Amino acid sequence: MLRIHFTDADLVRTRVAAGPDPLWEICTSLHRFQTRHGRWAYADWYRTARDRLHADHFTRTLRTLLLPLVPRAAYFPDFLTPPEASEGLDSGLEAILATPPRRVLDEVRVLGRGGGAPAWAPRLAEPDIRKELVQAMRTYYDTIIAPHSDRALARIEAERSARARAVLDHGNEGILRDLGPCLRWRRPVLHTVYPEDRDLYLNGRGLRLVPSHFSWGNPVSFAEPTLEPVLIYSLNHEPHHSTLPGDLGSGAPLGILLGRTRATVLRAVANGATTGELARVAGVSSSSASQHATTLRDNGLIVSSRHASSVLHTLTPLGAALLRGSTRAPRACGPSRRS
After folding, report:
1. Is pLDDT of 74 > 80?
2. Which domains does the chain have, with CATH numbers?
3. pTM across the whole model
4. Of 146, 161, 193, 335, which is the most exposed, with the fewest CB atoms less than 10 Å away?
5. What angle do CA 115, 232, 146 make, to 5 degrees?
6. Could you check whether the bond before residue 188 is cis, i.e. omega within 30 degrees of 0?
7. What percent of the chain has pLDDT over 90?
8. C-alpha angle with apex 42: 293 to 164, nearest 5 degrees?
9. In this structure, are residues 210 and 21 in contact, taking their beta carbons and an 8 Å threshold?
10. Which long-range contacts (CB under 8 A, 24 or more apart) does 315-319 make?
């Protein structure tokens, strides 16, 4: 069990990541290759990833370089997921290259004590070896993670909308409510299932919550308590609702897909809306609003996620693009004149 202790100042400083953290997504996706738990939620991705790895002759690099450094265990080196990655993949990889050799060696030793680091791991203190690692991580990201970035971003934006609503409904503490089955908020402590028994005192630093598309099961945090407090947690994967096709999916003509009521529902989803709110905006029953939402979701235009007793709907990038494309410039109030 991990117990994260908050003060009032910590609650004010707690925030949710603006988007997927590329290095955490690399590490959590590497865990998906090491277990069958939750495989159903990633079935399409898993098949595609295996095919791409074989086609690009990357399988050996995956098995001998990346997987041994990121075991699905209680620990993997903190330097592989620097906070600079919140600014993008390039910034994160540059931070890995800039990690002091002494820190690299210390964390490799911890990895060795926890279950066995590869024999070559201490050489990561050498700049040239770390460059090889960074290049492998970049190739892996471009091949395995980037093709699914729209799906991940859509789900994380839905989670951010849910967190924002929770704060509006419950105050600052709302951001920590209903984060998932592995997390429980009992003021002033956030309890989470964890591979080891730990207490983390924030001491006014706040907490950066990072929802992860590829994370499954218990949340993850830095092992070193002096680093920026961060908690990586799994999004709530729902069967049959986790795919985001590259087109409208059903093949139905746009005019059939977006009748007047359904178009109203789609516009209402733009800022995030529950099923009840969709019903009120569209002037239909809750069951009808749910049916319209299901059609839009099945066609890749929205994503739906359950939070407590409500289902929150948000746009996917495809749905947002469709709304932008349907927007027409407003007419001028009168004829233009030239002096």
Report:
1. no
2. 2-16+152-234 (no CATH), 22-150 (no CATH), 254-326 (1.10.10.10)
3. 0.73
4. 335
5. 95
6. yes
7. 44
8. 50
9. yes
10. 315/154, 315/157, 315/266, 315/269, 315/270, 316/150, 316/151, 316/154, 316/244, 317/150, 317/153, 317/154, 318/150, 318/244, 318/248, 319/266, 319/269
The angle subtended at Cα 316 by Cα 314 and Cα 320, nearest 5°, is: 95
For residues 205 and 83, the answer to whether their CB atoms sit within 8 Å is: no
Q: Provide the greatest CA pair distance for the chain.
A: 81
**Can you give the pLDDT at residue 324?**
63
- What span, in angstroms and rounded, lies between the C-alpha atoms of 289 and 99? 52
The token pair that represents 310 in the structure block: 């409500």
Burial 197-225, CB ≥16 within 10 A → b, else e: eeebebeebbbbbbbbbbbbbbbbbbbee
For residue 136, what pLDDT is reported?
96
Q: Which two tokens stand for residue 117?
A: 């680091």
100 pLDDT higher than 50 = yes
Helices 260-269 and 286-298: crossing angle in degrees, nearest 10, is 80
- For 143-163, the pLDDT digits (tens) are 999 998 887 887 888 888 888
Token pair for 243? 């795919």
212 within 8 A of 30, measured Cβ to Cβ: no
For the record, the structure tokens of 338 come out as 């030239």
